[in-house]
Amino acid sequence: MHNLAIALKNRGYYITGSDDAIYDPAKSNLEKADLMPAIGWDADHITSDIDVVILGMHARSDNPELQRARELELKIMSFPEFVANECEDKKRIVVAGSHGKTTTTAMIIHVLSQLQMDFDYLVGSSIDGFDLSVKLTDADMIIIEGDEYLSSPLDMTSKFLWYQPHISIITGIAYDHINVFPTFESYLATFRSYIASHHKEGKFFWFQKDENLAKMVTKTNVPNVSYDTPQFRLQNGGTIVTADGIDYPLAVVGKHNLENLQAALLVCQELGVSVNAFYKAAESFTGAGRRMEKIIETEKQVVYRDFAHSPSKLQATTEAIAETYNGDVLAVFELHTFSSLNKDFLPLYKDTMSAATKAVVYFDEEVFAHKKMTPMSPEFVRKCFGNVTVINSSSELSELVNMAYDKGDNILLMSSGKFNNAEFKFI
Q1: What are the boundaries of each domain within the chain?
Q2: 344: how many CB neighbours lie within 10 A of its CB?
Q3: Is the pLDDT of residue 13 over 70?
Q4: Average pLDDT of span 73-94
Q5: Distance between CA atoms of residues 371 and 336, nearest Å
Q6: HEC profile of the chain
Q7: Looking at residue 158, what is its pLDDT?
Q8: Which of 23, 71, 99, 351 gets the most CB atoms within 10 Å of its CB?
Q9: Spatial separation of the C-alpha atoms in residues 225 and 127, rounded to whole Å
Q10: Residue 29 pLDDT exceeds 80
Q11: What's the predicted TM-score (pTM) here?
């Protein structure tokens, strides 16, 4: 958000919806001092000389800055609406799906960057070799991570419905975001709308083993092509993919990530990249920030962290690490999102961590009050997950994980949060 605020400041935009940084419109240069770290909101920052307020999803409808903007009758845009407006003349490549969006988007932009192709991008995580998560220039194409979540408190449509892609990927559909999609049918409906929203000359690639997508494609006129898992074998904590009779050593692990890679290959081929050039460039791809990110590696031990929070991603990530390291892994998951803290959604996590040697589920009881949700007991959480240890003390979690680390155990940490700042000695 900081870098985006700097990039847009001279153009008369003001960004709200993030409580970690705001800039002072009274200042005239682009120094870091213009960005004032702050907790909370200040309506005085919203003045009549602002051309557009870009509203993030995390600002609530009663946000004082938003209220002032509405009082002044300023133009208000959601962030995806702004991006769509900025790239209406570009070729738009969008990556959608319930899981794997960030990784697949990162794979594409990594390969295109290695091949020195010119493009803009929007991705939901940090990526090695890229200082920003958003780039908007005069390039003639843009790679966008297409999120199905809502656009803003004033725009209750899914973000990806703004983009009208020329080329897109749908990695799969597995129920998520129960707080805004109260039924699975409502969740499926937004993906149907996404398919229908493609550019008149658009096409999309989809994972052929996804039953929900298989049903959807029978009812659309949008051109589409399915993809499957590429030919591969595991080797030395990595993967060898075979394509056109040639072996390519990759740092990517996990069957689901290889499927993401296959989708990225198909998109890059649409953009004129050969199979050989793609895999040669992909050999140096190490992942997106907190997406199957290897933070410790020795001859006898690895530690990964991942953004996994939905049941399907939790299971895929746990199975990927267990498969790569012969089942020898301590998997730790934090209940943090609205869906994972919802007692009606939690049963969908049944046996999702069963591939791990030991599975731990952590939650902070105070998070329920913060999110204004009904608390759940450790016994209920354990019943929903199956064979797991449930911990709701960050100090107890730290002790358990650090003890496993000192023993040399392989560790997988999965959360969209920070484990309530638990003190892990290796981070």
Answers
A1: 2-73, 82-282, 293-421
A2: 9
A3: no
A4: 95
A5: 10
A6: CHHHHHHHHCCCEEEECCCCCEECCCCCCCCHHHEECCCCCCHHHCCCCCCEEEECCCCCCCCHHHHHHHHCCCEEEEHHHHHHHHCCCCEEEEEECCCCHHHHHHHHHHHHHHCCCCCEEECCCCECCECCCEECCCCCEEEEECCCCEEECCEEEEHHHHCCCCEEEECCCCCCCCCCCCCHHHHHHHHHHHHHCCCCCCEEEEECCCHHHHHHHCCCCCCEEEECCCEEEEECCEEEEEECCEEEEECCCCHHHHHHHHHHHHHHHHCCCCHHHHHHHHCCCCCECCCCEEEEECCCCEEEEECCCCHHHHHHHHHHHHHHCCCCCEEEEECCCCCCCCCCCHHHHCCCCCCCCEEEEECCCHHHHHCCCCCCCHHHHHHHHCCCEEECCHHHHHHHHHHHHHHCCCEEEECCCCHHHCCCCCC
A7: 97
A8: 99
A9: 28
A10: no
A11: 0.81
If you average pLDDT over residues 134-153, what whole number do you get? 94
Structure token digits, residue 91: 């070729």
Q: Is 366 exposed, middle or buried (0-12, 13-18, 19+ CB in 10 A)?
A: exposed
Instruction: Tell me what the pLDDT averaged over the chain comes to.
Output: 88
Burial (CB count within 10 angstroms: exposed 0-12, middle 13-18, buried 19+), residue 23: buried
The pLDDT, as a whole number, for residue 209 is: 96
At the topology level, CATH places domain 293-421 in: Protein-Tyrosine Phosphatase; Chain A (3.90.190)
Residue whose C-alpha is closest to residue 152's, from 66, 247, 72: 66
Q: Match 């656009």 to its residue by tokens.
A: 151
Report residue 75 as tokens.
Answer: 């133009």
Distance CA 121, CA 142 (A): 5
What would the mean pLDDT of 318-341 be, rounded to a whole number?
90
Taking domain 82-282, whether its CATH number is 3.40.1190.10 is answered by yes
pLDDT tier, 234 (very low <50, low <70, confident <90, very high otherwise): confident
Quick one: which of 123, 416, 124, 99 has its CA closest to 257? Answer: 99
Cα gap 395→170, rounded to integer Å: 40
The C-alpha angle with vertex 212 and arms to 84 and 414, in degrees rounded to 5, equals 75
pLDDT in tens, 99-141: 899 999 999 999 999 999 999 999 977 777 777 788 999 999 9
- In this predicted structure, the answer to whether residue 8 has a pLDDT above a threshold of 60 is no
pLDDT of residue 129: 73
For the chain, give the percent of residues with pLDDT over 70: 90
